[in-house]
Amino acid sequence: MNWVFLQLKQKMSFIQFITFFLIGVGLSFDSFAVSVSCGLMRQEIRFKQAIPIAVSLAFFQAFFPVIGWLAGTTLHKLIYSVDHWIAFGLLALTGIKMMVEGAKPDGTLQSFDPFKVRIILGLSIATSIDALVVGLSFGFLELPILFPVAIIGAVTFLASMLGMLFGKYIPAKCSKQSLILGGIILIAIGIKILVEHLFV
């Protein structure tokens, strides 16, 4: 538990907050798209029913970066000289993957029941794989983890609730377009990290 106290002692600058917030926004688009699908497929969904779904999506989106961070921190000393390139590569590949998914012509949504535990757990894990990769890049760069995961979780929860709220009104293709925007944000963050380490 010592690392928790060390994390809490570290102060977060305004620039770091904005960076973590933008990463959270970028990662949340997967969950937003899923939540829109929930609203589209279950128009009778109510606020109390939406909360467990949003909590599950937010929890895994916040938990997976911790796993990646722990792995990245362990490997950091071995790859110190190229860590910024690895972080850039991971974020860029994740962003490109999201953009490709968003650009696919398939605008139809598969029918599923988000009220089933196995379904929502599967969706939560599937939409959090990208967050695992982002956490890995945090570990490589030895960035604090508690602040970003708290921000990522909060942003994802809000995005999920909004997605279900507007799901019955937002066309499926808009949720696909949100993946493209999320991918662009992650690539931009990767470029920022690379520039900071090479030229600052």
Descriptive key words:
200 residues, mainly alpha, 78% helix, elongated
Task: Give a summary of the structure in a few sentences.
The chain crosses the membrane at residues 14-38, 50-72, 78-96, 117-139, 145-167, 179-199. GO terms for molecular function: manganese ion transmembrane transporter activity. The protein has one domain (17-199).
Please, could you describe this protein's structure?
One of its GO terms (molecular function) is manganese ion transmembrane transporter activity. It is found in: Cell membrane. This is Putative manganese efflux pump MntP. Probably functions as a manganese efflux pump. It comes from Mariniphaga sediminis. The protein has one domain (17-199). Helix 2 (14-41) packs parallel to helix 7 (146-166), helix 2 packs antiparallel against helix 8 and helix 3 (47-75) runs parallel beside helix 6 (129-140). It contains 8 helices and no strands. The protein has helices at residues 2-9, 14-41, 47-75, 83-103, 117-126, 129-140, 146-166, 172-199. With 200 residues, it is mainly alpha-helical.
Write the layout of secondary structure elements.
Elements (H helix, E strand, L loop, with lengths): L1 H8 L4 H28 L5 H29 L7 H21 L13 H10 L2 H12 L5 H21 L5 H28 L1
